[in-house]
Automatic annotation (TrEMBL):
Organism: Neorhodopirellula pilleata
Similarity annotation: Belongs to the outer membrane factor (OMF) (TC 1.B.17) family.
Residues making up the signal peptide according to the UniProt record: 1-25
Residues covered by region (Disordered): 34-54
InterPro entries the UniProt entry points to: MdtP/NodT-like, OMP_efflux
GO terms of molecular function: efflux transmembrane transporter activity
This protein's UniProt keywords: Signal
Gene that this sequence comes from: czcC_2
SUPFAM superfamilies: Outer membrane efflux proteins (OEP)
Annotated protein name in UniProt: Cobalt-zinc-cadmium resistance protein CzcC
UniProt key word Signal: yes
One Pfam family from the record: OEP
Claim: Signal is one of the keywords in the record: yes
Length: 500
């Protein structure tokens, strides 16, 4: 483009002489000290500083200072500097699978969710353990005075052992209850894995889109530099005004700032991705395909997938089964256990060895666990409604996410199919017209900007497509750094020193 600009500029110079005087007369007054056209030079704006490690970009753009000795030196020096500019993102490349593998090994919430499974199995173990026996020492009437012995050891000295015999299968039901809660924790751990993997995918595609935007912004910067070069050449030929030159300088500086902003945004996206993974990684390049692969999901397929396979719904249904066991467990709590006691000792009054035995049982006259049974039954009914609430909530979220997914997919598809090809053809046609001296160079630059803007919009829409596609296919789960929820929702019964 720039070499052609130089060639076309020569033809303009050939005819510039006859128009110089006219152009000078038409120029707005710049003050009494204004120099004639072609003898003054408006310098470009300074390169913006980059305090966050973007020195390479500064050096690359700084080397593109425009020259005014001749049109050829201006164009060729700009080309040479751009081609030699080092990439500020020339780091190690990472694929999506790399991040997924690292996240599975290092994300702390996944380990938390797995530990909750072990915690519930430990509760099941404890809840099913049989009560320990109790060893008693018994000494009756120690020191009583008897004939011939004023300080006797008492009437009876001995040991007894008591044991509680649990009835009505309470221990079995308690263990089953917590094993079912461990099953809930398994579903919640699966949901947490989806949250982490979905977040990794979402942040990966966002970083991938940010990287593509950096490349587009660099192309736009090159276009702005072309515009600045052209404006100064036209000004020196008497075909542009000084305000037009200043306007091109403003556009150039904005393009430079857009590159800095895009690179900073990429680094932010990469660091967010690294935070989800749970491993400290240096800045690098994400490598992958932003365009979706395969056929898109229909809304019916997406809803069927989430209602049949969602780990959240599976956990809610497993919680209902655990609540059913809880009701059965509390219904037998009032059945009294039997406490048996037996032992032997020496009766000093009778001068012989004797035995002791006893049996005790609690009479459920007043407390038959009525309130706790009622609470467990209400928790069971509430969990039935919780399943329905979860289904409706997922349906509501799916409606919103799928709408965003479908809209972004339609826009990106049309940009690929119609808008970008048409913008590219318009740019090429205007470039051919410029070669034939039928249009001005700024018109070509405007078409080039439209073409780049269309590509930028396509990347932004593809980012939305991939983000929402991950949620649609990943059961709407996200939040990979939120602690995994426990199997017992707030308000549900879970209280006694020994689990039951």
């Amino acid at each position: 483009m720039r070499s052609f600009l130089f060639k076309s500029g020569l033809s303009v110079i050939a005819t510039a002489g006859m128009f110089c005087s006219t152009a000078t007369a038409q120029m707005p007054s710049m003050g009494s000290t204004a120099s004639p056209i072609g003898r003054t030079y408006t310098p470009p704006p300074p390169v913006p500083s980059a305090p966050y490690g973007l020195d390479q970009l500064d050096q690359g753009v700084e080397s593109r200072r425009f020259k005014v000795e001749s049109q050829q030196s201006a164009v060729e020096s700009s080309d040479s500097a751009f081609n030699s500019q080092p990439s500020t993102l020339d780091f190690q490349q990472y694929q999506l699978d790399d991040f997924l593998t690292l996240a599975a090994q290092n994300n702390p919430t996944i380990r938390q969710a797995q530990l909750q499974i072990s915690a519930q199995t430990a509760k099941a173990l404890q809840a099913g353990l049989y009560p320990n026996p109790i060893l008693n020492y018994i000494g009756e009437q120690i020191g009583v005075d008897v004939e011939g012995d004023k300080d006797s050891p008492g009437e009876f000295q001995g040991m007894t052992v008591s044991q509680r015999f649990v009835t009505a299968g309470k221990l079995k039901l308690s263990r089953e209850k917590y094993m079912r809660r461990a099953h809930i924790s398994e579903h919640l751990a699966m949901a947490q894995q989806f949250r982490v993997c979905n977040d990794v995918r979402i942040h990966f595609f966002r970083a991938l889109a940010a990287r593509e935007i950096v490349e587009l912004r660099k192309e736009l910067l090159k276009t702005a530099e072309d515009g600045a070069v052209t404006a100064r050449e036209l000004y020196n030929q008497g075909q542009a005004t000084r305000p037009q030159v200043r306007k091109s300088s403003i556009a150039l500086q904005r393009a430079r700032l857009d590159v800095l902003t895009a690179e900073n945004h990429y680094r932010e996206s990469f660091r967010r991705l690294v935070a989800i993974v749970g491993v400290d990684l240096t800045d690098g390049i994400v490598s992958g395909e932003l365009m979706p692969q395969g056929d898109p999901l229909s809304y019916q397929e997406a809803m069927s997938l989430v209602l049949t396979e969602s780990p959240e719904l599976a956990a809610a249904r497993a919680k209902l089964a655990a609540d059913r066991v809880t009701v059965r467990r509390e219904q037998v709590e009032w059945v009294p256990d039997i406490v048996a006691e037996g032992g032997a000792g020496y009766n000093f009054e009778a001068k012989e060895t004797t035995a002791a035995a006893g049996v005790s049982i609690e009479l459920p006259v007043f407390d038959r666990n009525q309130g706790t049974i009622r609470q467990a039954q209400l928790d069971y009914r509430r969990q039935q409604e919780e399943i329905r609430r979860t289904e409706l909530m997922l349906g509501q979220q799916m409606a919103n996410v799928y709408q965003q997914y479908l809209t972004a997919l339609q826009i990106a598809t049309e940009y690929d199919r119609v808008i970008i090809p048409e913008a590219e053809l318009a740019y090429q046609e205007l470039l051919e017209s410029y070669k034939a001296n039928r249009v001005d160079w700024p018109t070509v630059l405007d078409a080039q900007m439209d073409y780049f803007d269309s590509r930028l919009t396509r990347v932004q829409q593809l980012e939305q497509v991939r983000t929402n596609e991950v949620l649609v296919r990943g059961y709407l789960l996200h939040g990979g750094l939120m602690a995994a929820p426990g199997p017992t929702p707030p308000g549900h019964i879970d209280a006694v020193a020994k689990p039951r």
